[in-house]
Amino acid sequence: MTNQSTSKARKATIPTLVITKVCDDGAKDSVAVANAKEPYSVQPVYIPQEDLRHDGLPKWMPARFNNFPIVLQGDGAPWAEANLYLLSELENALDPDMRTYDTRALDLASLRRFVENENLDWTNFSQSMKLLRPTYRYRSHVNNALYLGEISAETARRRIGTAASFYKWLMAESIVVPKYPLWIEKDIYITVHDTYGFGHTKKVKSTDLAIRVPKNDNPYDEHVSDEGQLRPLPIEEQKWLTDALKAANNPEMNLIFIMGLATGARLQSICTIKVRHFLKPVNKKLLDVKLAIGPGTGIDTKGDMGFPRFHGHIL
Question: Which helix (H) or strand (E) holds 17?
């Protein structure tokens, strides 16, 4: 059993974060910070009226973020290093999606709760035994939560990935200077497919922190894994669908759905069929008609690989 969590580290959200810099008292748009041990003033790094940044960076770099996620320690104070990491990632993103960084903040809050519950110095990598180092101990914690069913495999892999990315940034900024490695890195080769369906081998970096879960395909599952969990529609549900199509009174949509129900073809295949494909002579004594699709036919397929055929009933 895992230890009952006592840390209150969590993620919070700042509605609008304006990046500032320390400045002299009385500087343009300055704001006094009076609740610090030594009061000081700050000003925005970018002042729109002047169209100028005061920190030397290009003015097109973002200086304001909406719904900025932050990580709070168990005592309620911001976790400085984690929040600076999130800010650094956002400032270097071309088109940031705040939902991605919100998830990263949740992952870092999980890491913070772990180190606080275990009373760990998360920057200390002086142990020669690797299983005593914070990264490996956190990996064991996440793996145990996965084994107990507390989190999904996707969440487990993501949390480890976020922790590794965070520690890489810490080392790059010399915040963490480890005596022993945080992990062991190696090259692995994976097969990826391009938009045409051709496979290519790609070399990527992996670490021994990675959590690998074997794929478990249930041969008795009624679903088909194809860009999601798909299943055939029972006759009753097909009737509901056709009734809805009749009510919508949309001829084009009717044709698309009826073709799909009768053949099982993909949407992109159905929508690229042209009248000329039906002008070929057909033996009407046959109940099925085979129509070639794919490269060279003018009818698209997934990846345009080969010449698959789908069967359609003569109506």
Answer: strand 10-18
What are the tens digits of pLDDT across the range 107-137? 999 999 999 999 999 999 999 999 999 999 9
- Asked if residue 78 is part of any domain, the answer here is no
User: Is position 294 within any domain?
Assistant: yes
Taking each helix axis from N to C terminus, what angle separates 98-117 and 153-172, rounded to the nearest 10 degrees? 90
pLDDT below 50 — which residues of the chain? 1-3, 305-307, 314-315
Alpha carbon of residue 142 to chain centroid: 18
Measured between alpha carbons, how far is 145 from 147 in angstroms, rounded to an integer? Answer: 5
Domains of the chain: total: 1
**Domain hosting residue 278, numbered range:** 234-313
User: Is 257 a domain residue?
Assistant: yes
Residues 70, 75, 80, 82, CA torsion sign: negative
Residue 79, phi-psi category: left (phi > 0), alpha (psi -120 to 50), beta (remainder)? beta
Report which secondary-structure segment, H or E, holds 64: strand 64-72
140 found inside a domain: no
Pairing of strands 64-72, 10-18: antiparallel
- The DSSP code for 294 is B
Is 98:69 a contact under the CB 8 Å cutoff?
yes
Distances (CA, A) of 92 to 86, 99, 104, 135, 241: 10, 16, 15, 25, 47
Which residue in the block uniquely carries the two structure tokens 């080769």? Answer: 189
Residue 76: strand, helix, or coil: coil
Question: What's the pTM value of the predicted model, to 2 decimals?
Answer: 0.64
| Both structure tokens of 218 | 């249930």
- φ, ψ of residue 218 to 5 degrees: the values are -85, 115
